[in-house]
User: Which sequence fits this backbone?
């Protein structure tokens, strides 16, 4: 679907007029789709929260009404797949993968109550257990951790629980994080590569044999 950035980077810097322009464009492009029953799926939790919460708040009148309706049709990818799987409308045939997943939830993902859906979906991987370190924020927080004056604080936040859990993970443990900034923080400070849930699931899809 044709769209622009969700507006989260602009909002985080206080550029609300520019974010409002983005919101107006996105509603104009996406609203006709949701009118036909289409769901809009998001891989990044912060983008989803911007569309669900911030886009309606930035707009007024009929645009606000359309943005509210659009927000109801926006789903995190894992949320959608778990809903559809639980309802019997879709089923993925997954091969066994890692014996354990260390799952770090994005702050927006947790704030929207969507971490259980991700846990439920990943729990469908055969012979795999899920560990949540309850690490709070990774410390990156979008652009926050990139600023020189926030560098030390960003690292201290990561060191509270997340980085110790990363360093103590077992050899057959895969780190999973839906947030782009979370994966960046884990890589730069923890020296480990975290994968998006969709990337892990795709790698485990059973291939038909000839």
Assistant:
């Amino acid at each position: 679907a044709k769209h622009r950035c969700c507006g989260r980077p602009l909002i985080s810097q206080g550029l609300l007029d520019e974010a409002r322009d983005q919101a107006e464009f996105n509603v104009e492009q996406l609203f006709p789709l949701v009118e036909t029953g289409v769901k809009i799926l998001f891989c990044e939790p912060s983008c989803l929260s911007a569309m669900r919460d911030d886009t309606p708040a930035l707009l007024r009148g009929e645009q606000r009404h359309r943005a509210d309706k659009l927000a109801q049709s926006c789903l995190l990818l894992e949320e959608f797949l778990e809903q559809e799987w639980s309802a019997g409308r879709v089923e993925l045939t997954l091969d066994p993968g890692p014996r354990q997943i260390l799952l770090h939830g994005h702050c927006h993902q947790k704030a929207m109550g969507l971490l259980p859906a991700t846990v439920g979906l990943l729990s469908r991987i055969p012979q795999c257990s899920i560990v949540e370190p309850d690490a709070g924020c990774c410390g990156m927080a979008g652009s926050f951790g990139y600023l020189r004056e926030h560098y030390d604080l960003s690292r201290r936040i990561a060191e509270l629980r997340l980085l110790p859990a990363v360093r103590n993970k077992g050899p057959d443990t895969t780190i999973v994080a839906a947030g782009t900034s979370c994966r960046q923080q884990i890589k730069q400070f923890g020296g480990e590569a975290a994968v998006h849930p969709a990337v892990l699931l795709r790698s485990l899809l059973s291939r038909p044999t000839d």
